[in-house]
Amino acid sequence: MKKRKPLGPLENAFNLNARDELHFEIARLFYTGGLSFNIARNPHYVRAFSLATQRTIPGYLPTGYNLLRTSLLEKEKSHIEKLLEPTKSAWKQKKSEYKDKTLISKLLINAINEVGHQNVVQVVTDNAPVCKAAGLLVEVKYPHIFWTLCVVHRLNLALKNICAPTDSLQNKEAFDECKWIAEVASDASMIKNFIMNHNMRLSMFNENSNLKMLSLADTRFASTIIMLKRFREIKKCLENMVISERWDLYKEDDVVKARVIKYKILDDQFWEKIDYILTFTFPIYEMLRKADTYQPCLYLVYEWWDEMIEKMRVAISKGPQRGDSKFYEVVHNILVERWNKSNTPLHCLAHSLYPKSSNRLPPHRDIEVSRERKKCIKKYYSNTSERRNVNEEFASFSAAIDDFSDNDSMCDRGLMSPTKWWVIHGASAPTLQSLALKLLGQPSSSCCCERNWSNYSFIHSLKRNKITPQRAEDLMYVHYNLRLLSRRSPHYREGESKMWDVGADGLDSMDMEGAAILEIANLSLDEPELESVLFTDEGRVGDETDMEV
To answer: What is the pTM of this model?
Structure first.
């Protein structure tokens, strides 16, 4: 038997054999447990092993099955509740928002009472009938709480009307003007499906392209734009594939369809239409990405919508249909109609309290904004004397007179964040200052909370269907808030664990052959690194047909 060579000084110093052994044991944990490789990016995973190597814990054994599901879970929930206390204590000043699309009004009201109705500014949902009914009941019980529609949902429905119009009497005009967009998307889907359904064609595609094709997500109409954008990125690869000799030599699949696909890919008009669609829909997609976040942006929605429509108008005027005012009129009407359905007095008041000036008409000179702002202030302040005081403070703020005429106050309007500006320069208008700090901290989308349902399906699945409702609720609470708290860490934006929770277990699906369909909870359109990935959301209430009332 061959003797094992003694370890060298370098190996002894770093204990390389022990390192390798530990590496393999960790790897086997992943392989045998079917764990996502993305877990290796989880900072808690890294911290656990760092703690074990830095401290001496004689006789320590890994956490057991019962301990994980009982006392440790209970202690972690209590620990998180303590960590969230500073956030809860700030509710009195900044107020809070509870967003959920499926709870009926009773559950919404119970949740509001748990937070404290005086701390809630708005309830944000999509426009499913159950959500609209629940929101209106909340407004009846608590007149100071507004029900607002999710802006992202509205933009998705606007893209549906543009990219997938229905042929009906009510939508006849829109269908006639926009059906060519659906035809282009259909052609792109046909090309994708043909390549995906034939192994030799798929092999040829993979040889020419490092990027995957993308499939349409039924509930996310921005996915049409994302799919076409990906098609534009792989245009050269598709052309190289169909002009190769192998494309015409392979006869085992539908030869006629293969010729149609080749003709379509080499058709310049097909690509010109894709370019045009991407150009004029980009402002809508851009706003959708900006609004699909948990960050405060309610006060920006009014201006974003105006900018989006103007950019869209310019893009259409420069396109091949620049002489066709009818097409612009149809698209413009779709967007305006969606905005009219989602615009609320709360949007107008938040927009009015934004210190930075813009290119649009000032809020105090805009009739629509002024009318809705007055409604909102009247809802907040029923006392005539109190309301007059708030209006006087708003007049000073809007006209930049009295203390608001100070040179620093004027200069900082365009340089400081709106909340900081009101903290520094709003003391002379205490009532308006308090109101501004509430509204300028509000988001405009319910999508981040809706993704909790995808999180819940990860926690309570067919493989874990014996878990009790209370334990599932505790796991959901810990799961969501640990991720939320981790985003405050400076390490979240750098290093190996950068954005570790983005994508989570679904990221591994990108390694599969063919079209990439990513079905995950935490990824949103505000993640620029993963912009090309599709999002499916099977947890939405109803389908797009029952979301309109």
So the answer is: 0.64
